[in-house]
Design goal:
Blueprint lengths: L5 H8 L24 E7 L5 H4 E2 L9 H8 L11 H10 L1 E5 L2 E5 L4 H8 L3 E8 L6 H10 L14 H9 L2 E4 L10 E2 L7 E2 L3 E3 L11 H5 L8 H19 L7 H22 L5 H5 L12 H15 L1 H4 L1 E8 L8 H13 L4 H12 L7 E6 L20 E6 L6 E3 L22 E2 H12 L3 H5 L20
Parallel strand pairs: 1-10, 1-11, 5-13, 5-14, 6-9, 6-10
Antiparallel strand pairs: 2-4, 3-4, 5-12, 7-8, 11-12
Length: about 475
């Protein structure tokens, strides 16, 4: 069921009763965002090893970064570190790119990401960190709060996405099974709590309204379904009560809430009737389809983004929250991480299918999207004994979209790491705080929102020589 914003509750309630099928009163006037950029956050839960996605070239010469990387991580590919022929062959499977004189590879199943990078639409911010510990839960809180000082007990406080839409006076749209903390809005009086008034629950965008016994079951089939009978009885009850209840009754807000939710759901459903689900999108989560993703859950989120943008004016959203879970690859990483990367970045898979569907059915929407891809922390430099990598600190963060000024931001493969590969338990060094990235994203959407959303972002850590002011075109 949709969680209606304060503005939309007033907007739709004021039109009154079940006859409300269009909005008769405007919402309140607000400054709004400075641009029509739509931010889609994609949280890779579990600490993704993005050094598997973006690798240095193989180098046969000992003591070089390429040699240390591939030999010390050979076990993640289940190859012997002494087998130079196999290591070189594995590197040759990657897409080979060069940016500003830096050569690197992109994982072979991530061809769409490669194409986007070549089109200058992928910014890779290197050596980023959102936390200073290796604990999943605590690091996630720190990152989604946008607060490096957050404790492990701060899970009920607001998130940076919720504070951003509060500054824009818009809504965030949560497409995940549970609303992530990044969407939590600030509580008006209690800083230890949050307020989700401006969060829309879009976990199933095709079921956002109340159950409609005639529409959902069709004809007279409701008579033989318990849900249909109950729905008809309650709908009739609320309709009768609305007609007889005194206007000053303390129970009238309950009726107004039911009418608003039901009417808003009808508006959304009517809109989506004009936007049938593209077959390519539907195939991402359809059991047995030729293009079913390894994670049908992620495929449904791609459908939900499509629907959310079709209802953009009704939902008044410019921040959308998504997730892909299962990145804690301590064991047999190679066989586990490839399907996930392919789901997201593969040709004809998640993000590309979404963008293609939008370009076909909703022209002008896809170019406004900025995808922000990240995890709560990175991994360690070298493989462990179980063919995976353990928790670390530094990682890559990626911004993807037409409005992104693509390229590499920071030292992709720091030379200082070369002697550290042989030291057990050594992290990738975190140099650039996520606050720097979040602040820039906020400023892209609404000037001045960076400081209110993530206080202190401009003075947070940033890698020497890195300038993020040009992240966006």
């Amino acid at each position: 069921m949709k969680r209606i914003s304060r503005r939309n509750f007033i907007k739709y309630s004021a039109a009154g009763a079940l006859a409300l099928s269009t909005c008769s009163l405007p919402g309140r006037v607000f400054a709004g965002p400075d641009t029509d950029t739509i931010l889609v956050t994609l949280m890779l839960d579990g600490g993704p090893d993005l050094r598997y996605l973006l690798t240095p070239p193989w180098d046969p010469n000992a003591g070089t970064y390429g040699n240390e990387f591939w030999t010390r991580r050979a076990r993640t590919y289940e190859i012997s570190p002494d087998n130079a022929t196999e290591l070189e062959a594995k590197w040759n499977e990657y897409h080979h790119l060069n940016s500003g004189g830096v050569s690197f590879g992109i994982e072979p199943g991530s061809a769409w990401l490669k194409d986007m990078f070549l089109a200058n639409k992928v910014a890779v911010i290197c050596n980023t960190f959102g936390s200073t510990n290796r604990n999943h839960a605590h690091s996630t809180i720190t990152l989604e709060r946008g607060d490096m000082a957050a404790s492990g007990n701060d899970a009920s406080k607001s998130g940076w996405g919720g504070r951003l839409v509060n500054a824009c006076e818009t809504n965030s749209c949560s497409l995940t099974s549970s609303i992530r903390q990044v969407c939590f809005g600030p509580h008006p009086v209690n800083p230890l709590d949050h307020d989700n008034t401006n969060v829309v629950d879009g976990s199933d965008t095709r079921q956002m309204g109340l159950f409609e016994y005639e529409t959902d079951l069709g004809n007279n089939n409701w008579r033989w379904a318990t849900q249909g009978i109950m729905s008809r009885a309650l709908s009739s009850y609320y309709t009768a009560k609305n007609q007889e209840m005194a206007s000053d009754s303390i129970y009238r807000p309950l009726l107004q809430s039911e009418q608003s939710v039901r009417s808003f759901g009808r508006l959304v459903n009517t809109r989506l009737d004009s936007f049938p689900i593209p077959s390519a999108l539907e195939s991402l989560y359809t059991n047995g389809s030729a293009n079913e993703l390894d994670s049908a859950y992620f495929g449904r989120q791609m459908r939900n983004i499509y629907d959310t943008l079709a209802c953009e004016d009704l939902l008044n959203t410019n921040v959308i929250s998504t997730e892909y879970t299962g990145w804690d690859n301590h064991r047999h990483m190679h066989e586990n991480i490839r399907p996930s990367l392919n789901d997201i970045f593969g040709t004809g898979k998640g993000l590309e299918t979404l963008v293609s569907s939008l370009n076909s059915s909703q022209p002008g929407k896809a170019p406004r999207i900025v995808f922000m891809v990240y995890g709560e922390f990175g991994r360690q430099l070298s493989a462990n004994g179980d063919y995976g990598t353990d928790h670390g600190t530094g990682n890559y963060c990626m911004l993807i979209g037409d409005r992104v000024n693509g390229g590499l931001y920071g030292e992709m493969f720091p030379a200082i790491e070369v002697p550290k590969f042989s030291q057990a338990g050594t992290d990738i060094e975190g140099r650039t705080s996520f606050l720097q990235i979040i602040g820039r994203v906020c400023e892209q959407i609404k000037t001045g929102s960076g400081e209110t959303t993530v206080p202190g972002w401009q003075t947070s850590a940033i890698e020497s020589g890195v300038n993020l002011s040009g992240l966006f075109t």
